[in-house]
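USER:
I would value a second opinion on how I read folds in token form. Give me a protein, with the fold worked out from its sequence. Write it directly below this note and I will take it from there.

ASSISTANT:
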Amino acid sequence: MLAISVVIITFNEEKNIERCLLSVKTVADEVIVLDSFSKDATAQLCAKHGVTFIQREWEGYSASKNFANQQAAHDWILSLDADEALSDELQKALLELKKQNQLHTMSFNRLTNYCGTWIKHSGWYPDIKIRLFNRKTTQWHGTLHEELKLPKGETVKHLDLDILHYSYYTLDDHLSQIERYTSIAAKDLYNRGKRPAVYKMYLNAWAKFVSHYLIHLGFLDGLAGFKIAWYSAYATFLKYKKARGMYAYD
């Protein structure tokens, strides 16, 4: 039977990590957690579940995930975020694939829970992600939105089952992430010499709202769908505003 190393990166994930670890218990032959010196109970919860727990200064998403992959004992990597968990159906399917020695580079759906509501539209579902791969041939690339760089000609098999994503518990959680991510995104624009025009702040924000709420049927997700569209538009506006602000100090 083929073996799977589950790899997770963490920082202050005491709200999420135990749920994630319990969901991979039947699938994982080992679990590697790379932690950026959490200040909460993340380390204690990981110790409780007997994972390989490594602490290392944060180097960015891709660098951290690639380092963690190299610490694994097995070549087949199942990469999860701490706020994710395998659905029961996905656990059973992966276990069966292991028994049949049928592991491949694979993608799964990601179903997101937003402030207590499961989001089935808004451009958030199925949110297909490649999460199972062989570390010998595949690595993470990118700074803000890390992506897997696959070998030329690699076939990705899609398993139409869900990773459960517990994204935001409150609107404050969403706003905190917007603040963090827009700073990273604005810095990336600045480093690439991209100075957004003023009109882009407003036009692109409006386009983002329309995309989430109307084109991707966010209104079918009720009030949660409206909030997702509104805050996504705000994030787009803020990213460009921060990028323009950086040029003011040149």
In short: The CA atoms of residues 110 and 126 lie 6 Å apart.
